[in-house]
Amino acid sequence: MSDTTSLDSVVAIASDVSAGRRSAEEVVGESLARVRERDRRLGAFLEVSESLALEEARSVDRRVASREALPLAGVPLAVKDNMWVLGRQATCASKILEGFRPPADATAIARLRRAGAVFVGKTNLDEFAMGSSTENSAYQITRNPWDLERIPGGSSGGSAAAVSSRMVPAALGSDTGGSIRQPAACCGVVGFKPTYGRVSRYGLVAFGSSLDQIGPITRRVADAARVYTVMAGLDPLDSTSVADPVGNPESSLEAGISGKTVGFLQEAETEGLDSEVAANLEEARRAFAAAGARVTTVSIPRAPWAIAIYYVVASAEASSNLARYDGIRYGPRRGDENLMSLYIQTRTAGFGPEVRRRILLGTFALAAGYYDAYYGRAMRARELLSADFENAFRQVDLIVCPSIPAPAFRIGEKVDDPLSMYLSDIFTVPASLAGVPAISVPSGLSGRGLPLAIQIMSPRLEEALLFSAARAFEREVAVPDELPRGLRSD
Amino acid sequence: MPDKSSPVDPQVVRKIAALARLTVPEEELPLWTEQLGRIVSYIDQLKTLPEESGSRAGAPPTPLRPDTTRGGGGREALEENEPLLLHDHGVVPRVVGAAGEDRRPAPQGQSSRPGPRA
To answer: Which residue in A130, A210, A483, B50 has its CB near the most CB atoms, within 10 A?
Structure first.
C-alpha cells in the first residue's frame, strides 16, 4: 500500500476491513504511526489516544468477525476538541476547560462508534471555535500542511490539517460561521456543513446555538457523504434536530447535475476578490457547464451584510452560552475570596483574548439600551437574508461562490486585526445564517501552491442534491492528489 | 480609532465587562475600546435597514419535548469533573455569608478526584 493512498478513503477502508482484507487494528495502527511521525511539524492534535484507539479497533475487528455490517468499519477518525468522546478530554482549546473529561459520547460520536469508527485523537481549534486561523487556541498553533508558515484556517484547523496530511482519512469539525468549510478550503480537502438541525448538537460544546452544526472533513466527496449519513437524523436530546428522513445520499452520488441550474453568486464577484480566486471561479464556471449544468448568475442582495449580522448573533449567543463557565461546576477556580471575585477572576484568567472580545461584543449587543439597535436589528436582517436565499432557490437549484476570499494567510498576519480576521469568513457565513447546507470542494492550487476551493450551497435538507453536485464538480476539476508540499521531505 | 459616532467608549467597555463578569485592565482599556469600536462601527452598516422591515413572525416556534424525567447515568463521569468531593457530594465555594469564610482548611473525609483543581 503506498504512503499516499492507504489512509485516503473512508469508503475504501470500511470496505477493506469489512471484507477482511485489512484489520481495523492494522489501519488504526498505521494512522497512529503517521500521527507520531507528522504531527510534530503540524500541531494538529491536542490529545492522541493510542491505547484506547487500538483497544477500540480490536473491538471493531471482533464485530466484523461476527459478521456485523459496519459502514465505517475500522475507519480512524480525528475529532475536534469541542465534542464529547468518552474517555477523552474536551477542552475546546481553552484553559477554562483544561482537564475536562465529558460524561458521555456526543450523539454524533455514539452513532459513528456504532458504525465501526475508531477515535484516534482530539484536534486543535480556535478557543471555543472562535476564529478563522486556529491561532486562538490556548495550547498551540497548527500549521498548514501545504506551507508550514501559513495558517490551516479555522476554527477546525486541527481537523483539516489532520486530513490534509493524511494522518486520518476523515475528521469531525463544527461549523458556526464557516469553521468546517474555511479550514477545509485552506488545506485542500472537502468540508461539509449539513442543514441546521440535521446532525444532533448534543455533546457539541455550545458556541452559537442557532448556527452550530457538526460535519465531516474528508479528502473526497463520497467519504463526506458516508460519514454524514451515519451521523445525521433526529435525536430527542437536541430539540432543534429535524425529523425529516436523511435518505441515502450515497445512492445518488454519481447522478450528475445535468439539467440542474447552478447560480454563481453575484455579490461574491464584487468584493475585491483575489485575482487567483477570481480566475479559479471562472474555471469552476466552465467545470459546471462541462458537467451539464445550466450556469447562470444569482443574487443574494443582503449577502454583504452577513458578517455584520453574524458577529452580533453569534457573539450574543456565545455570551449567553459561555456564562456557565463561572468556576463553580468545573474548571480551575481562581479568586474565591467572594462569589463575584471567583466569577470574574476565573473567567478573566480562563478565557483567551478572542473569547473575551466575543463575550464583550455579545454582552454589548444584548445590553439594555443597545438591544434593539444591535441584536434586534441583526435578527431582522437575518430574516431578510434567509428570505433572499429562499428567493434565489426559486430561480436556481444550487448556489456557487468561492469558499475563501484568498488562499491561506501567514501565521501572525491578522492576529492584531480582529475585523480583518472576521472578513475571512465572508463567503461561508451566509449559508450558516440561512441554515442551508454547504460544501467546500478543492478546486486547484494557487501560483504559490496553496489550495483554492469552491463552495456549493443547496436548499435546506437537499443534501443528496448537494453531494451529487459536489461529486460532479470533483470529477471535472484536477484535485491536487500529491502529498501536501510542507510534508514532502518525509 | 472608531468614528466619533461609535457608541463604544472606555466607560461602556467597563460596564459591559462588569455585566459579562470579566475585567479589562485599565492599561488595556484603550486597545479594547478601539477594537470593539471598529467592530461595532462595521456592524453599524445594518443601520440602513428600515425599522419596520423583517420580523420574527414567520419563524417556526421552538420545538418542545415532554417535560418528563429520564434516567441520568454517568454519575462517576460527572464526579470526575468535580473540583472537590466530600461524602460523595461536589463541594462548591460558599455563596452566602461573609467573604473568606469558605477558605477554612478542608475537613476530614474529603476526597480528591482526577480533573481540574481549584
So the answer is: A130
